[in-house]
Amino acid sequence: MWRHGDMPNEPLIAWTRVPRDRTMELACASGVRLIVMPALDVEPTINANDVRDIVNNVKCIVVTSATTVDILIAHGLIDIVRGKSALVVGKTTAMRLAEHGADIRLSSSSAEDFRGVIAAYDRPDVLHLGGDHVAVELGVRRLSLYRTIMTGPLLPPVTATAFFSPRGVRSVLLRTPPDHCGLLCAIGQTTARALEAAAGRIDIVSDYHDETRLLRAIIDTLRRRSAL
After folding, report:
1. In 3D, which of 84, 86, 25, 66 has the Cα closest to residue 188?
2. Angle at alpha carbon of residue 20, lines to 182 and 185, rounded to 5°
3. pLDDT in tens, 67-96
4. Which pLDDT score is estimated for 33?
5. Low-confidence stretches of the chain (pLDDT beneath 50)
6. What whole-number distance in Å separates Cα of residue 133 and Cα of residue 190?
């Protein structure tokens, strides 16, 4: 691991959502600087009683974003996942749900992998919990817990930019050309495809849906390219 003082030029990495503490710790320990410029604002849209009633009447939940878990916890609703079969995008999100009693049936890097499992259920027994926009429609009922608002951040020229959702890709590229983004980095194949379609290239993809692993992959790539 490098120390901050070892490098004359500090690589700048645009982080398009608020980073978790351990991500910031890795950045500081590695001598890179995160430029935090969220691509999306999140506004909760839930009625706690309605959510509880609806989820209580299904057997399987689909969770495709870490924000969904954050919203459930913030509104005192995380207990509703206990005992529910769960199809989850992202290993870290799956682990968080499992800690609260969810029965993780499948964890994947893309919701497209859930179609076969969903087919084993009656459609009314499956509920997709998420925001007002989803990257993959699964043909089941959706319950929106929050809405996302594109902020359209204008990024300075940076060494790399981390993207976390297709909608975040659209938000950033509204005002910032890909050439100013440095290495184009994405969590998950769905975001990677959106980024490649919009920018014409993709440099780093992490299938772990763990932002700290994505940062580590960026640092390793910069190190190999002698940017650090």
Report:
1. 66
2. 25
3. 999 999 999 999 999 999 999 988 889 999
4. 96
5. 1-8, 227-228
6. 13
CA–CA gap between residue 151 and residue 171 (Å, rounded): 6
Q: Tell me the CATH class for 150-228.
A: alpha beta
CATH of the domain spanning 42-148, picked from 3.30.1540.10, 3.40.1080.10, 3.40.50.10090, 2.120.10.30: 3.40.50.10090
**For the chain, first and last CA: distance in Å?**
11
Closest by CA position to 164, among listed 19, 61, 33, 11: 19
The pair of structure tokens assigned to 105 is 């049936």
Tell me the CA distances in angstroms from 162 to 24, 81, 222, one per residue in order: 14, 30, 14
Do you know the residue count of the chain?
A: 228
Are the folds of 42-148 and 150-228 the same?
yes
Could you report the per-residue pLDDT of 101-121, keeping only the tens digit for each? 999 999 987 888 898 889 888
Q: For the chain, what are the domain ranges?
A: 42-148, 150-228
Q: Tokens 């919701």 identify what position?
A: 111
Q: Is 81 helix (H, G, I), strand (E, B) or coil?
A: helix
Q: How far is CA 12 from CA 16, 182, 215, in A?
A: 13, 9, 12
**56, exposed or middle or buried, with CB in 10 Å at 0-12, 13-18, 19+?**
exposed
- Residue 90: which region, alpha, beta or left (left: phi > 0; alpha: psi -120 to 50)? left
**Residue given tokens 């959106």 in the structure block:** 194
Sign of CA dihedral 57, 148, 197, 204: negative
